[in-house]
Amino acid sequence: MRILVTGGAGFIGSTIVDQLVERGHDVVVVDHLHPAAHATKPDYLNDRAEYLWCDLRDLDSARGAVRGADAVCHQASMVGLGVDFADVANYVTHNDLGTAQLLCALHESSFAGRLVLASSMVVYGEGAYRCVVHGSVRPRPRHPRDMADGRFEPTCPVCTSALVPEPVRENAPLEPRNVYAATKLHQEHLCSAYATEHGAPLIALRYHNVYGPRMPRNTAYAGVASIFRSAAERGEAPRVFEDGGQRRDFIHVHDVARANVLALESPSDVAEALNVATGEPHTVLDMATALTETIRSGEGADAPEIVGGFRPGDVRHITASPERAAEMLGFRAEVSFDEGMRRFAVDPLRD
Fold this sequence. Notes:
Blueprint: E1 2-6, H1 11-22, E2 26-31, E3 50-53, H2 59-66, E4 71-74, H3 88-108, E5 114-120, E6 128-131, E7 135-137, H4 144-148, E8 164-166, H5 179-198, E9 202-207, E10 209-211, H6 224-233, E11 239-241, E12 247-248, E13 250-252, H7 253-265, E14 273-276, E15 282-283, H8 284-295, E16 305-308, E17 317-318, H9 323-329, H10 337-344
Helix pairs in contact: 1-7, 2-3, 3-5, 6-8, 8-10
């Protein structure tokens, strides 16, 4: 197949490109090389792929990118929580307008092939919770006053008792709680509208916390894994927000890329949203500790520093059930947390 990978020079996109090329596909990459993610053109680009350096927000560029595509893997996106709310216009234009222009170009070319979208677990807001009295409940957004006082755990909206976090499934209510999350959900809605009108099978892959080689090292939008690793490499104790007990599902980029390949090559008309996760939750403190112990082994490394505080728009617990992706795509994560942390401690990152 001739497959268009948007954002194919990035952390996840480039890994997808490598796997698609290895499987014999004709791969075309379009990437804007956004300065928030790329200081320079990466040195890991696959010389068996074709690269178009352009901005999808420009319709003429999008038209050129989609020409002849049999399938589209849409990874291009600004990621993370941003620096502050002033980032809102950048997120909306890059994530939503860029997606809209891509879909417009696909519409003009009568594209009805497979469309795979990089979505995110952030569309759920908080994860799934159960109250021992009221069963499955949706906690209210956490109040900054509670956070400042160290009350980080959500409570039952009915009786205010403690909640038990559970794996979130794809049919959970969607409730984005920050700007990035809102744009990812809008991407899902735009692509779903396109798929419905054109009969194009759409799979929205809701990534959980992705880490691995080529992750940006030191930008305001870098993921927590690279921030912790950079601190450990400097000989500093990683600074952990809240009390470190935030539960996440950390998944290796090679597994995420493999999920995309399975989605693109699926012989059936699978068309739905799927969690891309390991199903094995770990805390943020677990990750900080694992990286510190691996990187500073034998050097008397300081333990991670729990500093309290919080990031506006962040959620407490969000872990996932991977069962639907296993059923529909045959996808199971292969890289364990312990193995992944050992590898990530020495993986090449992107400056």
